[in-house]
Amino acid sequence: MILTVTPNPSLDRTYELPGLTRGAVLRAAADRVDPGGKGVNVSRAVAAAGHRTVAVAPTGGPEGALLTRLLGDLGIEAAGVPVAGNTRVNVTLVEPDGTLTKVNAAGPELSPTEAEDVLEAVRAHAPAADWIACCGSLPRGLPPRWYAELVERSHRAGARIALDTSGAALIAALEQGPDVVKPNVQELAEAVGRPLSTVGDALKAAEELRGRGAQSVLASLGADGQLLVEASGAYFATAPVAVVRSNVGAGDASLAGFLAAGGRGPKALASAVAHGAAAVQLAGSLMPAPADLDPASVVLSGDVPLDRALTEPAL
Description:
Blueprint: E1 2-5, E2 10-16, E3 30-36, H1 38-48, E4 53-59, H2 61-73, E5 77-82, E6 88-94, E7 100-103, H3 112-125, E8 131-135, H4 146-156, E9 161-164, H5 167-174, E10 180-181, H6 185-192, E11 196-198, H7 199-211, E12 217-220, E13 226-230, E14 233-238, H8 250-260, H9 265-279, E15 299-301, E16 309-314
Helix pairs in contact: 1-8, 3-4, 4-5, 6-7, 8-9
């Protein structure tokens, strides 16, 4: 079972538009609403693969009730923590060429009691979990060290932690030795305080995060592939993508694939890349099912191409 923790979940509304014109009245060609937030997306991908998952998230208002219902419809056990504020609603506008315009709401402010209630919900479900995936930004009211507290408590209970966050929350949590951290290339550059122009730069940055406490680093390099750096070595993998429809949730699908395949080693990296490649070819924030995956397309190498330039260098 994979337990996910999403401190700032959302309802994700996606509108596919024939074009985006400022100031105009636009009619959507298609629209959908999905349960959202990075940890929720991980649970969606895990459930789509047929594995058990429990999603811990603060939920409030009618939006929170709808989020809980949608999770149940997907076969996800929702461990909602009631809060006073309303669950946020995010909007994504998709143009025909795949260009995305996202509007993310701030979300409710959690009180100290509500923050502790979320930690208690994690503690209650942790004994049954093979992995705990803690994902996304922190809502208002939670200090940067909240994830560090969660990692420390979970490790005391014997649980393995995968952490997907950024900024001060990531830096603070490194001190507690999360089992896996999953930055994208921009977040990796921010964490080490310098630009990353090549895969070799990304490798050095990942090694630096390991030196600061992370046991392994799964770094998404966008269209250039993914990099796994752990005690057994460094591995690199790519997969061709014919058409990119949406990159919303692709990193979350990758993390789900990584954890579902054991969370370590080249096999897990290959699963992560297959899931990410499948996700970007789906509309909106849809998560890939097994039928969407093409494991044979993944090119896995123990020789990291150090001199390869990143398509979009992190600034």
